[in-house]
Amino acid sequence: MTEQIQPPSDADLKRWEELAAAATPGPWKTTEAYGHLGVDDAEGQLFIESYGITYAVRDEDARLIAEARTAIPAMLLTIAMERQHIAELEAELAALR
Questions:
Q1: Over the stretch 23-73, which tens digit does the pLDDT of each residue have?
Q2: What is the pTM of this model?
Q3: Residue 1 lies in a domain
Q4: Which of 8, 29, 90, 94 satisfies CB 3.0 to 4.6 Å to 74 for a cystine?
Q5: Which residues pair with 53 in a beta bridge?
């Protein structure tokens, strides 16, 4: 199934902002232990593995990571569209000079 990427709505942006505010402050980094990647912040692990199952220490962090899969492509699309629009406006301005 192909994912259809759309620019984020105002509701999306608000939800993502709330998720980011509720999550553990960054920066976060990946670390490797026992052949698996983990996610840590400055104070310790955000995710732990037990008996082959990975658990989020905080639900808010798991929600943010899950939403990021949709949010990042949508934000990248928006940035690309805005850059294209700026380039078009700059070309129009240059033509007026």
A1: 999 898 888 877 777 788 888 778 777 777 777 788 898 899 899 999 999
A2: 0.76
A3: no
A4: 8
A5: 50
**Rounded alpha-carbon distances, angstroms, from residue 35 to 31, 32, 49, 75:** 10, 6, 12, 32
Number of domains in the chain: 1
- Does the pLDDT value for residue 1 go beyond 70? no
Residue 74's Cβ-count burial label (10 Å; 0-12, 13-18, 19+) is middle
Confirm whether 41 is domain-assigned.
yes
The answer to whether residue 3 scores a pLDDT higher than 80 is: no
Which three-class secondary structure string do you get for the chain?
A: CCCCCCCCCHHHHHHHHHHHHHCCCCCCEEEEECCEEEEEECCEECEEEECCEEEECCHHHHHHHHHHHHHHHHHHHHHHHHHHHHHHHHHHHHHHC
In a domain, 4, yes or no: no
Does the residue 3 lie in any domain?
A: no
